[in-house]
Amino acid sequence: MSKSVKSRRRFWHYLLRAVLAWFIVTELLVLSLRWVPPVTSAVMIERWIDARLHGDRRYHIDYHWVPWREVSPWAPLAMVAGEDQTFPSNWGFDFGEIKDAIVAADHGARLRGASTITQQTAKNLFLWDGRSYVRKAIEAYFTVLLTLNLPKQRILTIYMNIAELGNGVFGVDAASHVNFGKPPARLTPREAALLAATLPNPHIFHANRPSPYVLRRAAWIEQQMRQLGGPMYLPR
Description:
By secondary structure, this protein is an all-alpha fold. It has helices at 3-32, 42-53, 74-83, 95-106, 117-126, 133-149, 152-162, 171-180, 189-197, 212-227; strands at 62-63, 164-166, 169-170. The chain crosses the membrane at residues 12-36.
């Protein structure tokens, strides 16, 4: 057997082992989230590093995990109403929304996001900012893992705990205290809608100082919450 053949076999052998190791590690990591809250997220780490690189020593992460039962049902409902209304029934991807976004882009519109809550959870937990095919492929991989390993309610619990809702403010607990001076269990439908309305850009939009855009979006989210049937729409 020639050296070149041996080298190719060795290469494929090590590549297969690397792929298998990657799958086992990521599978165990995602599976553990069924019981263990994430200590941090890729977005939190990236924001902290970016602040330090720009000399902002005052920046800190405000993140406190709260279980589902300690959050007003209006908070997760507002996020579903504003971000992904097919969440209770989709399999991690909203193919109809993806198709509509592509069609709109083909007609000259700016390519808009079509990410589900599960995709956003995967992105926030494991990935860096930016757009590339490699990043989207990894996001899709983790989206599938989350969908296969975690119940819907757990995915939504993770999302509302790690979502960026202000400068250094992550999750519904920190956002509730910063914006309204109360724990998330006491959020009203209006307050929950205001928090969800800031999600497109929490560095610009503020729930406690809402711009006209945030007020309009919050009103729309409240309307959607009613049309969805209230908290009974949420996954159990």
